[in-house]
Every structure is written in C-alpha cells, then in structure tokens.
Amino acid sequence: MPRNVAQKLIADHLVDGAMTPGKEVAIRIDQTLTQDATGTLVMQELEALDLDRTRADVSVQYVDHNLLQADERNAEDHAFLRSACRRYGIWYSKPGNGVSHPTHMQRFGVPGTSMVGSDSHTPAAGSLGMLAIGVGGLDVATAITGEPLYVRMPEIWGVRLTGELPPWVSAKDVILEMLRRHTVSGAVNRIIEYHGPGLATLSAMDRHVIANMGAELGATTTVFPSDEAVRRFLRTEGREHDFVEITADDGAGYDVTDEIDLSTLVPLIAKPSAPDNVVAVREVAGTPLGQAIIGSSANPGLRDFAIAAAMVRGKQTAGGVSFDINPTSREIFADLTKMGATFDLVSAGARIHQAGCMGCIGMGQAPAVGHNSLRTFPRNFPGRSGTREDSVWLCSPETAAASALEGVITDPRDLGVDEPTLELPERATVNPETLEEPPPPEVSRRAEPTKGPNISSLPDFPPLPDRIEAPVLLKVGDDVSTDEISPAGAAALPYRSNVPALAEFTFTRIDPDYPARAQETAGGSGHIIVGGRNYGQGSSREHAAITPRYLGLRMVIALSFARIHWQNLANFGILPVQFADPEDYARIDADDTLVVEDLRRLLGEPDAGLSVSNATKNQRYEVRHTLSQRQREAVLAGGRIPLLAQTSAAVS
To answer: Cα separations (Å) of 11 from 8, 132, 453, 508?
Structure first.
C-alpha cells in the first residue's frame, strides 16, 4: 500500500508491534538530544543504569536553559554535564552555542533518522524529514543504552497546504492558525504530517517553526517531507551529502485530514495565557505593551531576526518598550552580525542577549506585573515567564517588531510600508569546533563525572502497595501544565539536579502549601491528585513526575492526560488512571480519602478494571488505565529503574 512520510519513517525503525493506531510499538532510535534543564537527571539515570558508553549513533548534550549564573549551582551543573558526556561518549555543546533544536538541526539533523529528546520541542527536527519525538528523560536514557522507544502508535493527521503566504504573514501564523482551529489537545496521540503544493514556499527553518509548536497541539511529533527545501538548508550548512529524499507515495492516505490555504492567513496572536487563545492581531491592536522579545526555538531562523532588523533599520523603538533579541545559535548570531543586522537592531534600541532559551524558560527577561509582553516563544502558560501574574502574548517576529516600534500591539500590515526583501547568505558561518566531540572509549572509561554539592542522587522509590488509602491532596482543573507542577524560572531551574530541593517548588503556583502538606504523607500512605482534561500538558520535564513522587504521590486520577507526562508518571511508579464516567470528577473534593484495593493482582491482568472508593462520602467510581504490560510492570516495581534493576539481578 502507498505510505505517507510518517508511515515510512516508523516502518524503517520498527522493532516490534503493529502500526495500528492505539497499539504499542517499539521504535529503534538513531539519535538522542538532551538539554541542561533535563539532561542532569538523564546523566544520573545513565549512572543508575550502569551504562558504559552510548549505543545511539549520535548523542548530544546541549547547555541552553540554565544560563544565568546567579550563584554556583548552574556552573556546577555544566561541569557535571561536560564530565558525564566524556564518561558516556556524548557530544557536548557548551553554553552560548545555542538552543538545542536549531543547533542540532544545523549540525546533526539527517533526513530519515529517528531521534528522541528530553525536551518537548524535539519534534522541530521533523522539519528535515526526521522522526523526532519528545519524551521524558528516562526514555532518553534507555535510548542511549540502546533500548527502543515504546510509544502508542499515533494516528497520522495529514494537513494539506495550498497557496502562498501573503506579505507580513509568516510560518508562526501557520501554527497559530492550527492552534486556533484545534486547541492545545487537538493532536494528542497523533503525528501531524504537512504536505501539498504550499510546501514549496516554506523553507526548512519555516517548517522548524511549525514542527516545533506541534508540541503545543499535543502531537506525538510533526513531520515534513525531505525535499528540495531540505537540500537547500543542508547545502547552506555544508552538509548536502547528508540529504536523502523522503516523500509520500502517490495515493498515500491519512487517518485524519485538514487543509490550510496559506494565502488566506493573516497575522495572528495568542492572548494570555494559553497558546490556543488565538485571535487576529487587528482584533487586539492598540493594546499597550512593555516588552517584545524575538528568539526561542519557536522562531529560531536567521530570517526571523533579519526581518525584524530590516523593519527597525533607521528607526527607534518606542519608549517604555524593552525590545529583546535572543539569538538562537552562535552560527545565526555570527551571520546576523556579518549582514549588519546586529548593528541595525542595537541602533534601534534592542537589547542583545546570549544565544539560548532565556526568557522562554523564565531565565531572565521576566516582565513587570500589569505590562504586556509580546514573545515569539512557543508557550505562554501562567507564570512561565518568571512573573507570577504575567501577561504574555505569542506572535510572529513581524508582529513583535511592528509593535515594538509603535509601543502598542500592531498588525505589521498597518505600518504603511512594504515588507522588506531579505538577502540571506548562501553559506552559513559554520564553526564545528564549538562542539566538543566525545573522547575515544578507552579515555571515556577512565573519566569520572564531576559532582558538586548541588548534584543529588536519584531517590529510591518503593514498589506500588497492594492497597492505597490516601487523601486527595489536590484537585485541579483542565490543561494543568508541567510548568505549574514543577515550575521553570531562575529560582527553580538551578535545582534541576537536586530532587529534594526542587521538590519544595512543586505545585506552588497552584497551592503554595502543597510541598509541606505532601511531605507529611511521603513516609506513610502517600496521597492522590485529581485532575481535569489534558493533565500535564507542555514540557517533557520528568521532574513534574519525580518531585511529586518524592513527596508521596501514588496515583493521579484525571479526565485525560498529556502523552509525555502520562508516560513519565508510569516511568516513576505513579499510577495514572482516567475516570470511566467523566461525571465522577465533580463528585470528588480535595481532602476526600480514596481507597483502591487489590492493585497488584488487578494491574497484573490486562483487561481488569479498577474501582475507587471514597471513604469520606461512601461513593464508588470506576476508573481505567491504558498502560501496556511493560508499563504496568514498571508501576508495580516502583518505576522503570527499579524494574530494570530487578531484571538485571534475575539475569545475573
């Protein structure tokens, strides 16, 4: 049968299972990506798994999140990561090299390969015709050891693009249109594949913008064909030899379909505080702002900075507006400077920051309360900026630059000028020596990871008990993000490698007293959390599972789960179940005591249902899980690491 691009990529890497939507499949992994906010735990997990050397074709560790060194903790993490890379044979990208996704695309992306990354925006590599999936750190660690990735086979959602983007409309408006139509949970358990004649007008970096923010739709990943646009990109990077053409077969079908006529799109903007709260820019034009930032993995291309520079050339940004530029890679910063665009930006009043995620993860650039911040970032979840009561909007570089000039939210079409014509270099300024190649195996084996006092060991978690009788410590609504469970930002991020210290931040944006109340349950019965729809959306950070687990969380009952967080919960021995009857969600209150019995037998049976008793209200609720046998075994053992330890002990 004719196959689409996603089916070809999966079939080429299929180790086990049938490519039937909803069934678990095992996929061979060629490349792995880690970044410093999640990579420290990955390296600790590799130590717990007793790895000798990476078995993936390419493994790369980037330092792009924890860049503000207000004290010694981030520097300790960087030293630990570099030493661990030497020990395990992993490439190391030092601070300042750039954001992981565009930097990986420039140096390591190869059409037709598979990759997992401990960052939810890993699917950005789908812009090159890669099968790239964001997962929790433990899934990356096991991929580094040579294990396949286990995932439920997604539906393939074909989005046909026609037409051509009009002036002042760019790739960011395409993905904002998808979010406007389909919401943050519209692509859960789906791969989005873009196809059609409109693709010919989108560069590889345009596609990166769209693939990156597929994570905001909840997609397993996003894929594009590897075509002439990909060949041009690789030629610019001096890697045309890595090009492989991968396109859908004639007559290939899709499980779900959609179509976008690019010529009909207008500048769009996501209002606070959700990526799918999307309206036309003209609907909110005139709204005052205090900040406009261009950068992040959601708008990482040279073109995205160059268009802003051309727009502000010879002008001055409005007083009271902080116009911030976060270059996304050392290479892009160099080319921007060679073009003279850096001078144009600085002369217009821009502030130039180091290449990295920066404000996207709340590391600096926190806005003032009551002042609107326009950002070309992927997410605007409440408080993610580092300001608890923030007001963050998501938009294109064109809208950000136009608004910075006018001092109010402005549709760039209303500037009264033609869109600038850009002349980008045919060859990028490539400096491969900024990436540290791993030493040979005989050197790696003698290397020892360097651990400062802020580097803790992974906690030991006991097996799941046969009976849970525990209070509902927290009841939350729909679309609770991992930013709300385990916050980012300059205060929390330096503790990413210190689970006990990081646990003190858990759920504090929702309930400041949660850590103290949860700690009281940790050594005894534990506790339960009740969630709404799409529980755990957003970042892949497994800290959002580990720190509640450290504080005694045993079970989450929700209306539905975001894919990565659902997997992370199971990986660390927390039982994720869903209400069989959604009406039961309203019947449970915080502080109710819930009881689940005979867990070990029932989880051992693939089709057995679970019944939850409410001892406080004398009620009973039916719940269900969608865990595979492999996941059920991990939950029963207290997590995948204890399970692997048991397996190793049994074999030896």
So the answer is: 5, 14, 45, 43
Taking residues 216-221, report their average pLDDT.
97
| Beta strands across the sheet bearing 373-375 | 278-280, 268-270, 392-394, 373-375, 291-295, 322-326, 351-352
Which residue would you say has higher pLDDT here, 651 or 622?
Answer: 622
Chain position carrying tokens 């294109």 = 396
Torsion of CA 397, 399, 405, 409, to 10 degrees: -140
Structure tokens belonging to residue 520: 């009281």
Structure tokens at 453: 């006092």
For residue 423, pLDDT over 60 is answered with yes
Q: Is 626 exposed, middle or buried (0-12, 13-18, 19+ CB in 10 A)?
A: middle
Q: Distance between CA 420 and CA 479 in Å, rounded?
A: 39
Average pLDDT over the chain, rounded to an integer: 95
Contact 583, 525 (CB under 8 A): no
Scanning the structure block, which residue is given the tokens 């969608």?
626
Residue 152 pLDDT:
95
d(CA 384, CA 484): 8
Give the phi and the psi of residue 235 in degrees, each rounded to 5. Answer: -65, -40
pTM higher than 0.85, yes or no?
Answer: yes
Question: E strand or H helix at 343, and its extent?
Answer: helix 341-347
Q: Say what the pLDDT of residue 608 is.
A: 75
With CA atoms as reference, report the closest residue to 434 among 106, 119, 117.
Answer: 106
149 vs 154: CA distance, rounded Å: 14
Angle separating helix axes 204-212 and 302-312, nearest 10 degrees: 100
List, for residues 570-610, the tens digit of each pLDDT value: 999 999 999 999 999 999 999 999 999 999 888 887 777 89
500-522 b/e with 16+ CB inside 10 Å = b?
ebbbebbbbbebeebbebbeebe
pLDDT tens for each residue of 464-499: 999 999 999 999 999 999 999 999 888 898 898 899
- From 2-11, 333-342, 521-530, the region with the lowest mean pLDDT: 521-530
| Residues 6 or more apart in contact with residue 650 via CB below 8 angstroms | none
User: How far are the Cα atoms of 274, 286, 370, 416, 531 from residue 289, in angstroms, in the given order?
Assistant: 18, 9, 9, 21, 34
The residue written with tokens 């608890």 in the block is: 388
Residue 552 and residue 162: Cα distance in Å, rounded? 51
